[in-house]
Amino acid sequence: MGAGVLAMAAAKESVGLEGSTNGQWWIDSIGKTLDEGISFHRVGSRQLAGLLIAAWARNDLKPHVGDVDAAAVPCGFGRAIGNKGGVGLRIRVFDRRICFVNNHFAAHQENVSRRNADFDHIYRTMTFNKPHGSTASATSVQLHKAVSANENQADEDRPELAEADMVVFLGDFNYRLDGITYDEARDMVSQRSFDWLRERDQLRAEMEAGNVFQGMREGRIKFPPTYKFQRHQMGLSGYDSGEKKRIPAWCDRILYRDSRSVSMPECSLECPVVAAITAYEACMDVTDSDHKPVRCTFSVDIARVDELIRRQEYGKIVESNKRVHSLLRELHFVPDTIVSTNNIILENQEDVILRITNNCETSKAAFEILCEGQSIRKQDGTKSEPVIRASFGFPLWLEVQPSSGLIGPGDTTEVAVHHEDFFTQEEFVDGVQQSWWCETTRDIEVVLSVNVTGVASTEAATHRITVRHCCPAPPAPPSANPRGPITDSPSDAVPGPKSSQSNHLLRSDFANFGSSEVRDLCGVRKRNL
């Protein structure tokens, strides 16, 4: 088999693109044992090379289980090959997040640091395919669950596993026994001196030193070491007696972390998941592997909110508590207001005053004025389709002051509406106006929305004001030399009809000037006026 084929096979295993008939056999066999479809239903599974995790839920829990998602983290060569690593499932149970992670860490007696690193890599980088549903409730106790010693780690940098209400790690962790020979270990196993052996357990020492599985717990070990056995040999005599004589060890473990902290021993909404181990044992009669399987039974209390009861209690509080009743009324209360007019016509640069009166004698009114859209009055009297203003802002030609504020009980606020002349270089290209809102021969119309709310209300009342700018009709063109040069000579400033005509520039005359010249002409016009 070529190197390319091996690399491709390894890549497929590492990302889970290629299924496994062996893994499917296990899923089918477990499902058959659990009477799948009648008593249990499978909620999810994930495989990475030789690692497999699957979860089933009792049918009576089916309505309360959802948002199942899977993830995989390879820890093999280059952190890419799936012969070592972890596969996980995240499940929502009664609106609480519970994660299960199956692991296989680095082998060999001396690789303690590598095993610690494998755990750390899986814990920090395991990322599920989709964000957890919004129905799951975050709790304050989750702030105490970071694996890192850095307790001030930002929320966006926290591992997803740290956000779960309960995490269960299981699998072949490969931690061995130190400071003991093969024969000594066999003797202690035969005497069932498991506590003495545990004092030499690498995992226990690393956890006590805070190097791995920080904040997690394990049930008391009352079963013999689960590795290494000769296949198809029953009893404790089946420990490896070959040339290597590997020292018996508890390689296969199950650890967990729930919502508890020192200050919150009981299950509550602040400490929503509390677990207790009711059984932790090895299946010593299994002989198909050089490991003995380990199983753990948990009793889990989950705090949940009964939405029906919550709504009923909420209704009782609203009806009986005068303060709450008053606050709810404030959320819906909008003071009665009137405006002085619904139509404003701007014919020159004088201010037009819009008055907003608060008729309520007990509450302030908040107002905000927005521009809904702008249209043009055509020569035949019809209007163009209104153009919606971005962010509901005012056009450049219209000034509204103030556009928001508070009106005291029984008071009136005056709002000045003003037409503003403006000229910018961008409005002209080769002397021709390009911006349709600068059109001087057509009337422009906008609709202002005056939104009124109470100080604490979430509802609003709206007054709509039509503002129309009427442009004066252009004077008749001069009879002679309509395109003559415009100068700033004293003769042009002499009052009279001729002077007025000499300073008037028709729309077609802009074609003779560049942008900068038009800007200068505007300045000339202002000085002459």
From TrEMBL:
Its cofactor is Mg(2+). Pfam families: Exo_endo_phos2, Ig-like_IP5PC_F. Keywords: Hydrolase, Isopeptide bond, Magnesium, Metal-binding, Repeat, Ubl conjugation. It comes from the Eukaryota. Residues 1-306 form the Inositol polyphosphate-related phosphatase domain. The keyword RNA-binding does not apply. One of its GO terms (molecular function) is metal ion binding. SMART domains: IPPc. InterPro entries: Endo/exonu/phosph_ase_sf, Ig-like_IP5PC_F, IP5, IPPc. Residues 469-508 are annotated as: Disordered. GO terms for biological process: phosphatidylinositol dephosphorylation; pollen germination. Belongs to the inositol polyphosphate 5-phosphatase family. PANTHER family: INOSITOL 5-PHOSPHATASE, TYPE II INOSITOL 1,4,5-TRISPHOSPHATE 5-PHOSPHATASE. This is Type II inositol polyphosphate 5-phosphatase 15.
